[in-house]
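Record passed on here:
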Amino acid sequence: MKPLIHLICDYAPGDMAWAEVLSAVCAVIPKEWRTHATSVGSFETISTGFVLAQLALAEEPLRPSELIVFANFAPRKDLRDARHNNEGEGLLFARLQNGVGVLAVNSGYSMSFVRGEITELWSVQVDTGGSQFRSRDNFPRVIGQLAHQDHSFFWHKLDPSEVVPAPPAESVGYIDSFGNLKTTFRDGDPFLASLKPGQRLRVTIGGIIRTATVAAGSFNVMEGDLAFAPGSSGHTRRFWEFFQRGGSASSEFGKPAVGTKISLSI
């Protein structure tokens, strides 16, 4: 299986920015490497971290043995003042327990969902300013170095527990194209462990209250029913999600933003 670079950015699918970034990356990586682009919503660092973890923590044969995940999400919210020379958040490199290398802009929750899997974390020597479009002009060089197994960009070794925040609890983590609300409730949660298929839950998301049925899977409910069940994300510890068979759970809850808190009661 050919080595692969997953690129996660908050550009719209097909946006010109994607074309420019992919061109810049392909110019510096070995010819045998492939790339794949995944879009997340604008300024959604929680979605970025959720997707990053799902892609990076997959085990073989669900991923190639050589894998780099690059998350470029820089809302420039670490400082509220005017930016000098377009400077933004710095770049981090993490090696995970399964050997996957992760490059991510140090913003929000971009690395939160792999926090417990990091074996080493480094700040990266790369220009953090000088361009409004750092993902095209500055960051591809580092991706190319990593693909060539050149780690000379390592700068300072960091403690993940001090640099990477824990993921948000009991929140909307990601919304897929079907309108399924993937949450940060996860197998192992005591409340989830107490639930039985068929139980009814009172669910509050963003001030909207609905009733959902606890289910064992996506097709264990009638057409049109709102259900809460273990989803396809999270690997060995699955995240639970809300789905509406034949409809959109996101629309049912008024299209909440990623990060919106969720309240559950039987």
